[in-house]
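Please check what follows.
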Amino acid sequence: MRKSQSNPHIPPKPKWATTISDLRQGLNLSQAVFGGRLNSSAMTVSRWERGNQEPSAGSYIELGNLSGAPVCWYFWGRAGLQTEDLMRVMPKLGKRFSRTRTVVLQSAAAGSGSKIPVAPQLVAIPLLEVVAASHGERGDSSAILHDAPVESMIAAPKDWCPNPSATTCLRVRGNSMMPLITEGAILVVDSSQTDSTKLNGKVIIAWHRDMGLTVSRLQHYDHTTVLQPESRDYESIVLDSKHKWKIVAKVLWWIEKAP
C-alpha cells in the first residue's frame, strides 16, 4: 500500500490563518460563535482559517482584543498597530516594553516593598478619518462610524472601553466645547450607547443629514432636549420634529494635544 502524500502544489496556509484557527480552538468556540464575537459570519471565519480571505484591519483589531496578550500583538501588528501608538495614551509604559512586545505592568504591594507583575488588559481602538464638528461647523456626513476608513490605531486599557467592538476614535473641529474639549482633540466614542434617556448630561456625538457629525452635551429640560455647547458664545440646538438629530455615540474620554 502506498503512503498518502500531501499535494506539493498546494501552498501552505499563511501564519495569520493558522493563528486564527488556533485562537478559536483554544477558546473552544464554533466558527459561528467565534464569528459572532467578531461581528463576522461563520463563513467568513471559515475563509480566514482556510487562508482564502485575510481579515480586514478592523477584524484584526477585534481578533487582538479577543485574544489578549501576547497574541494580541500579532493581530494588532497585522492591522498596523505599532508600539508608538500605545505610547500615545500610556507613555509611562515606554520603559517597560520588551523587545517581544509583551507588556508587564508592575505594582507595589502596600507595606511589603515588593513588586507584583500584573497582566495588562489592553484593547486596540481604530482612529477614523472622521471629524465631528462643534456648533457652528459642519462635520463629516457618515452616520455609521464603523464604515469609515481607518487612519491609524491606539491602544488603551480595557477598563476605559466597556464595549471594545463598538469603540472608535475621531477628531474634533471647532471651539464650541472649549474649554472642556479643544479643536484637534481625539475623542474616544462608544457607538453602542445611544439611548438618550441614559445620556442626560453626557458628551455625545449626534448626526444630522445637513450638518453631519457634531460633538455636544445632551441635556434634558422638562419636555425639551437640547444639544448644549460648553462655550456661551454658541447657541444650543433644540431636538424636535423639525430638527431631526440622531445620537450615534457616547464620548468616553478624549486625548488633547500638548500646548
